Predict the structure.
Amino acid sequence: MGTAPASRDVTSYGMGLAAPLALFFLFFFVAPLLQLLWLSLHNDTAGLHWGLGQYLHFLTDPFSLSVLGSTLLLGAEVTAVCLVLGFPIAWLYQRVGPKLQTVIILIVLLPLLTSVVVRTFAWIVILGRQGIINATLQSLGVIDTPLKLLYTQFGVVIALAQVQMPLMTLPLITALGRIDPNLDDASCSLGAGSWRTFFKVVLPLSLPGVIAGCTLTYAAAITAFITQSLIGGGQMLFMPMYLYQQASTLQNWPFASAISIIFLLAVLAVVSVFTTLGRLSRGYGGA
Amino acid sequence: MAEAQGGRSLVVDAVTHRYPSGALAVENINLDVKGGEIIALLGPSGCGKTTLLRIIAGFIAQTQGRIIIGDDIVDALPPNRRAVGIVFQNYALFPHLSISENVGYGLAARGIDRATRQREAQRLLELVQLPAMAERLPRQLSGGQQQRVALARALAIKPSILLLDEPFAALDKNLRLDMQIEIKRLQRVSGITTLIVTHDQEEALSMADRVAVLGHGKLEQFGTPSDVYDRPQTLFVNTFVGSSNRMPGVVISADRTAAKVRLDAGAEIIARPAGGVLTEGGRVTVCIRPEHLQFVGDETGFAGVVGMSLPLGATVVHEVTTADGSGVKVSQARIGETRALESGAAVRLAPLAPSLANAFPATL
Ligand SMILES: Nc1ncnc2c1ncn2[C@@H]1O[C@H](COP(=O)(O)OP(=O)(O)OP(=O)(O)O)[C@@H](O)[C@H]1O
Ligand SMILES: [Mg+2]
């Protein structure tokens, strides 16, 4: 791993160029984070007694743990839905003419061009008791009483999947585009059918994109406060809302801080699992 | 899947292909390749070589015509059932698989067990002289080594036809020669019918039993290397294969074997009517290779003025401007005191023999 010291000269730019951003991060990211950590290490709301009480409380409280668990599970479900739906779109994108490519990329990017709030309300209109889905199914006579779609796990997963879809599709499109199209032909001429080609060549080579997409989608899905709360309603509680309640409604800042730190660590753990997988698969996509 | 190793014949029967974009890539190509032959597809860039290769492999369905391998019309077969091995110009090795797995890929697709696969891969790697590389990844190999692996991978499925798309384009000159010899050796051993796409005429002439010259999507000539070089059937072949001086002239008299032509440069010569019947009084283009021109002392031949002389190792090439203002090149073997001529020297030139000047009807 030894790079010759001489090679540094060519590409060494003054570290000073990074200073503005570093300062920005220092004041608006590192400092609040440290303050959060400091707060979370107090046992009382007034912040007078030091201790790990808040963490102990969270880790021994079945309710808190279940909120954490269901949030992490929600992320996994959304990621899975995005992967299953996003992969074919990305695959298709690489195989159609330039006109259709423009259409596909527009459809993929469209969610990013409207506000999350607007999109979430659209889902309320679609999923509601008198919403589009129920109205259609009822008028077709498929169901008598409206299905409960809003305020369910299913509803939250579907809405979140739509909202986060670009984060999955874009890295996949990039990764698939980097695969030499001749590899498909080579595989085929060697006697492999299209499924074999997909599982032995296309999928392994797109793994870096899969992992990047999963990491982004997962991180975005579990922290999506607005969509989670609006579609999930009162019955479903996820970590962002939980910690908002503790901080804003109950004014229990030390506990809210501890929740944030634990949530942060949990997310970091999941993301680092993804990136480790990514590093292991680097032998594939690169070069 | 019939896969008798080697020896299956290949017929390209009136194949035409038009891409959806409207580009007519190949037009009415007919090739009749005997089992075990090496054929070179030679032509300039964009003339449809790769298209034809991809049609034979089954990646593209031709607009018209048939492909027949052995006794089977294979047009309805997808590429994975044609038993055609193909080596891509950029090798297209699977970057995530080891060399051994790359070579064994086709066998795995046929459901052959792991141990047999590895043994076979090792045998093939020895054949292409890379026995120690089995566990490496493709990017840990040099270009020439990757080339050999691609060849081994294609041979592993015991194809009845082997297609090579510009296999040597990325190699330097010495390695290229090695690989040409190597492929020729492997081909002799296995007897696989082989099609090599190239735009390098020396490669085509040295490696192939027969050469198919393509120009602008059409088959210009299909014959042995000496046919193509010495008895070109079209002006295109004459100028594309080897270098040639093109001298315009008028037919004075002609029969089927010889034509008397008055060159614009100012001489009457006898030429071989190469591209069909010549009519008296018609304009022609006469092609004479630089090595087939000689300096003459008497008043025969045509006059010219030496522009520049280039000593090129074994030969000396003289650039001569003729009376009608066009330039011709003359190549002389360098024997003894053959020396550069003075610039501006007046000389006279004539073809070595009538059969070495080819007359084609002028297209205009
Ligand atoms: N996918 C395609 N769609 C439309 N036209 C194409 C396509 N592929 C090739 N062509 C056109 O068909 C013609 C023949 O292309 P082809 O790739 O067969 O040439 P080639 O002889 O292999 O050239 P080269 O020596 O540069 O590889 C070219 O004019 C090219 O522009
Ligand atoms: Mg080509």
